[in-house]
Design brief:
The complex is a heterodimer of chains A (281) and B (186).
Chain A (H helix, E strand, L loop, with lengths): L5 H71 L8 H31 L5 E6 L1 H18 L3 E5 L7 E3 L1 H17 L6 E8 L5 E7 L36 H11 L3 E7 L3 E9 L5
Parallel strand pairs in A: 2-4
Antiparallel strand pairs in A: 1-3, 4-5, 5-7, 6-7
Helix pairs in contact in A: 1-2, 2-5, 3-4, 4-5
Chain B lengths: L13 E12 L6 H10 L12 E11 L3 E12 L9 H5 L4 E7 L3 H17 L4 E7 L11 H10 L4 E3 L8 H14 L1
Parallel strand pairs in B: 1-3, 1-4, 4-5, 5-6
Antiparallel strand pairs in B: 2-3
The chains are: A alpha+beta (281), B alpha/beta (186).
């Protein structure tokens, strides 16, 4: 009996070719996986190096600044003899600049911690009014320097917030600091605390009569190192590294709250923040 | 030679960033804080540290979705066991998108407690996603005595479960990643 095996042979050959192609694809995939894993390891390593560098640089900046500020305090307090007005003015400029450097190095450290997931907070029932008053007190010299008036509104019986008191003060401080920096002298800033529309949240509102934020820059406002073009306009005295709002948003996120804003260029900006209340309703 | 029957292509996926609040639930000393520390810092401390207040940590994981890669920032909320903080339990649970319900495999009562934690959580957030972590697997041999009980409770809660060990790291990453996928996919 004779059997035509041509078709079977062709099928076998095709099957073999498919098997080879599959093996090749498998090898290629394995190779690509290895390359991706290697690239991932390298990127992680680079990220660690970057974070370590920023962290060390910020720490190294802070140590000498502590000495500078300490000796400045002694000089301004008259411990090394009387100073004339001009000398005092010069020293205050040095003091202000040194404090800005401390703030920048603190911000860099916070950003490093946020990006590495190493920023931990402990939330406890907290009197938000007391926290806001502390933030206002810390800003008084800058407000005085620009003759700005700051008003704090809070209802008599505001529920406690479930927040980290230091970080909540930092959030309010960042918003008030921006309002101070990006508003002309003699303008008004209003800080309000109230219960938010969203049940179970408290709302912090900071309004200014400053230069505002251009519509095309609003989407970038919470990105790290972003500085709005208006920051260099007349009326603005901002000179930060562009980290404040990024830190504020990260801290608000960690609290499970929200941050957003309204702004009219040339008229002013209002920032809103919600933080959880410590109620059990 | 014929070209391969199929070709491998690597697509560049768009990346979006999403933040979700995840609560840790479970009885005293089941290892909630240790699981968080293992997941966030990849460390384990062999001592029981009672949490004071609500400790919040954060870790970002990548979750592939249909046409994009989601960078999911998980905000991990870990509440103190102290009665002092019973007054903020609703605030603690409010807004949670997911929860890791933790029990100790060696203590059957902690497995049963998961029902009441889930009930309380779903009363506040009806659509919350839950994953059960049966922790302290390192203290057992190959026989895991309460696994049947854990399987039953997890099925009742409509939650996947993982046998974990914060000490060795066993399935800790899997449990949190599964929760991350549920948060993004569903």
């Amino acid at each position: 009996m004779v059997q035509d095996v041509t078709e079977t042979g062709c099928l076998k050959q095709e099957l073999e070719q498919q098997r080879n192609a599959l093996c090749l694809a498998h090898d290629l995939l394995a190779q690509q996986n290895l390359q991706l894993a290697a690239a991932n390891t390298e990127l992680q390593r680079l990220d660690e190096v970057k974070s370590a560098f920023v962290s060390i640089a910020a720490h190294e900046l802070r140590s000498p600044l502590t000495s500078i500020l300490g000796y400045l305090e002694l000089l301004l307090g008259g411990d090394a003899g009387d100073l004339n007005l001009q000398q005092k003015d010069y020293l205050r400029v040095i003091e202000y600049s040194a404090q800005r450097l401390v703030q920048t190095s603190n911000d860099l450290l916070d950003v490093t911690r946020i990006e590495a997931g190493r920023l931990e907070m402990v939330l406890q029932p907290t009197d938000l009014v007391a926290v806001a008053e502390l933030a206002v007190r810390q800003l008084l010299p800058q407000l005085k320097a620009k003759s700005q008036q700051l008003t704090l509104h809070a209802p008599a019986r505001l529920p406690l917030a479930l927040c980290d008191a230091d970080r909540a003060r930092q959030i309010i401080g960042i918003l008030l600091g921006n309002a101070n920096q990006y508003s002309p002298p003699g303008t008004a800033i209003v800080l309000s605390l109230c219960e938010a529309d969203a049940a179970g949240f408290l709302q912090i509102t900071v309004s200014d009569q400053g230069i505002g934020i251009a519509p095309e820059e609003r989407a970038s406002l919470f990105r790290p190192f972003f500085r709005a073009s208006s920051a260099t306009q007349p009326g603005a005295s901002g000179s930060g590294a562009g980290l404040g709002l990024y830190i504020a948003r990260s801290l608000v996120d960690l609290h499970g709250g929200r941050i957003w804003f309204d702004s009219v260029p040339g008229k002013g900006t209002t920032f809103y923040v919600t933080l959880p209340s410590a109620d059990n309703q | 030679m014929r070209a391969p029957a199929f070709a491998l292509t690597l697509r560049c996926l768009s990346v979006i960033t999403v933040s979700k609040k995840v609560c840790l639930l479970g009885d005293f000393a089941v290892g909630k804080t240790s699981l968080v520390r293992r997941f966030v810092y990849n460390i384990f401390e062999d001592k029981c540290l009672s949490t004071m207040g609500v400790k919040v940590s954060r870790r970002v994981i990548a979750v592939p979705a249909a046409d994009e890669m989601v960078e999911l920032a998980i905000m991990l909320w870990d509440l103190a066991d102290s009665e002092e903080f019973d007054g903020v339990r609703i605030s603690y649970l409010r807004g949670a998108a997911g929860a890791l319900a933790v029990c100790d495999m060696n203590r059957p009562t902690t497995v049963d407690s998961l029902r009441s934690y889930a009930l309380e959580l779903r009363a506040v957030n009806p659509h919350v996603h839950l994953v059960v972590a049966a922790n302290k697997a390192d203290l057992l041999g190959k026989v895991k005595p309460n696994e049947e009980q854990i399987r039953t409770v997890a099925a009742e809660l409509r939650a996947p479960y993982f046998v974990t060990s914060a000490k060795t790291g066993e399935h800790v990453e899997d449990a949190f990643r599964q929760l991350g996928r549920l948060l993004i996919w569903e």
